[in-house]
Specification:
Elements (H helix, E strand, L loop, with lengths): L3 E6 L12 E11 L35 E7 L2 E9 L1 E6 L4 E5 L3 E5 L4 E6 L9 E11 L10 E5 L6 E3 L5 E7 L27 E7 L4 E4 L9 E8 L5 E3 L2 E3 L3 E6 L4 E4 L8 E8 L7 E3 L2 E3 L2 H14 L20 E4 L2 E3 L12
Antiparallel strand pairs: 1-18, 2-9, 3-8, 4-7, 4-9, 5-6, 5-8, 6-23, 7-10, 11-12, 12-13, 13-20, 14-19, 15-18, 15-20, 16-17, 16-19, 21-22, 23-24
Length: about 350
C-alpha cells in the first residue's frame, strides 16, 4: 500500500491544514522592495491593518508602515518561526527581543501568556528585502499550558543541514532526530515543549530536491501512533514523484508514518521542489481555540481573555506596538537581559 493516505490541496492563502500536535502552519513568501524611506525601514504605501492579498507581490499583514504583526497576545501553545530568507524583528512582554532570519529559527513557548510582535522591517536599502518563512504553532498539553513563557534562538550555523552525496537533495532539520550525521545533534526544544520528550517524535523538516535528485524520508523513529504531514510548497509543476505517485499541485500529503517515503525528481524538471514535513505524536486532548489563545475548555478561554484584560500578560515594555530595531543593528537575541549574536556577526551590519 502507498505511504500516502490522502492528499489535500493547499489554500492559495492563509494557514495550511495541520494534524495534532500541530495547530497552525502558514508559509510567508513576500517580495518586499528595498527601503526607500531614508532608513525608517517602511514601505512606500501604508497598509490598511489587514492586508493578506495572496495576489500581491507582498503583504503588509497587520502592519501600517512596516509590514508584520504588531504586539498581540498568546497563551497555551508554542510558536516555531523557521526562516529561509529575510529578517524579522521580535519583541515581547517579557523583555526579550531579537532580529533574526536567513535560516535562523526562533522557538517561543507562550505558556501561561505572553505578548509579542513580529515585524518585517525593510532593513536593506540597496537590494530587495525578500522574506520567506514558516510560522508553526505546536500545541502544549494541559499540564504545560500555564508554564512560564520561554524563548530560544537557533542561529543558522547551528541548524543541521543534511545533503545527499550528489548534493541534489538536502534536508534542513528545524526539529527532530532525522537526517543527523555522526556527532550532529538536533537543537534542544524548550524544556516544556511537547517536542522536548523524544518519545513524542516531533519533527519539522525543510526538504529540497533539485532536478535529477532523490531522497528517502525514513519511517518514524517511534513505534507509537505518529501523525505525519508532508507539504509540497514550491515546484509543483515539476511533476515530482512521492512514493511513486506524481504530484503536480501544491498539496498536503497525510502520510503513513510507519513507511519510508521516496521522493524523486526527473532530470528534465524545469525547477527544484521544496517540501515541509510536520510530524509528532498526537497530544489527544480537547482543543478550545479562540484567536491567539489555545486551551482545553471554553471556560479556560474565557479565563485567558479576562487575565489578558487584567494583566496584559506583564504589559508592553517597548515604546511602539510595531517595535523594530535600528537599521544597522544586525542579527541579535536579547534573552533574560543578555544579548547574544550569531558566531559570524562580529562585523555584521545590515544597513546598506
Amino acid at each position: 500500500m502507498s505511504a500516502i493516505l490522502r492528499a489535500t490541496k493547499l489554500p492559495t492563502s492563509g494557514p495550511y491544514p495541520t494534524l495534532d500536535p500541530f495547530l497552525f502552519c502558514v508559509y510567508h513568501s513576500d517580495d518586499y522592495p528595498a527601503d526607500e524611506s531614508g532608513g525608517k525601514m517602511e514601505t512606500t504605501f501604508p497598509g490598511n491593518g489587514s492586508d493578506f492579498n495572496p495576489h500581491a507581490p507582498y503583504r503588509m499583514y497587520h502592519g501600517h508602515h512596516i509590514p508584520g504583526f504588531p504586539q498581540h497576545p498568546h497563551r497555551g501553545f508554542e510558536t516555531i518561526t523557521a526562516t529561509m530568507e529575510g529578517l524579522i524583528d521580535h519583541a515581547d512582554s517579557v523583555g526579550n527581543a531579537g532580529r533574526y532570519g536567513e535560516g535562523d529559527v526562533q522557538w517561543m513557548t507562550a505558556g501561561g501568556g505572553v505578548v509579542h510582535g513580529e515585524m518585517f522591517p525593510l532593513v536593506h536599502s540597496d537590494r530587495p528585502n525578500s522574506l520567506r518563512l514558516f510560522q508553526i504553532w505546536l500545541n502544549l498539553p494541559a499540564v504545560s499550558k500555564m508554564v512560564p513563557p520561554s524563548f530560544a534562538m537557533f542561529w543558522n550555523s547551528d541548524v543541521p543541514v543534511y545533503k545527499t552525496d550528489d548534493e541534489k537533495a538536502s534536508v534542513t532539520v528545524w526539529a527532530g532526530d532525522y537526517f543527523l550525521e555522526e556527532n550532529v545533534t538536533q537543537n534542544s526544544p524548550p524544556p516544556d515543549s511537547w517536542a522536548a520528550d523524544p518519545s513524542n517524535d516531533v519533527a519539522v523538516l525543510h526538504i529540497t530536491v533539485q532536478p535529477g535528485g532523490s531522497i528517502v524520508i525514513p519511517k518514524a523513529n517511534s513505534s507509537a501512533d505518529i501523525n505525519r504531514s508532508v507539504y509540497l510548497i514550491e515546484g509543483h509543476e515539476s511533476n515530482v514523484k512521492v512514493d511513486g505517485k506524481v504530484i503536480n499541485e501544491k498539496v498536503c500529503l497525510t502520510m503513513d508514518a510507519t513507511k519510508d517515503v521516496p521522493i524523486e525528481l526527473d532530470q528534465g524538471a524545469k525547477e527544484g521542489v521544496q517540501f515541509l514535513l510536520l510530524q509528532g505524536k498526537p497530544i489527544n486532548e480537547p482543543v478550545a481555540q479562540h484567536g491567539p489563545f489555545v486551551m482545553n475548555t471554553q471556560s479556560e478561554i474565557r479565563d485567558a481573555f479576562m487575565d489578558y484584560q487584567r494583566t496584559q500578560f506583564g504589559g508592553w515594555p517597548w515604546p511602539k506596538d510595531d517595535m523594530v530595531f535600528p537599521q544597522d543593528k544586525g542579527r541579535f537575541a536579547l534573552i533574560d537581559g543578555k544579548e547574544t549574536r550569531p558566531p559570524s556577526s562580529t562585523a555584521e551590519s545590515c544597513s546598506s
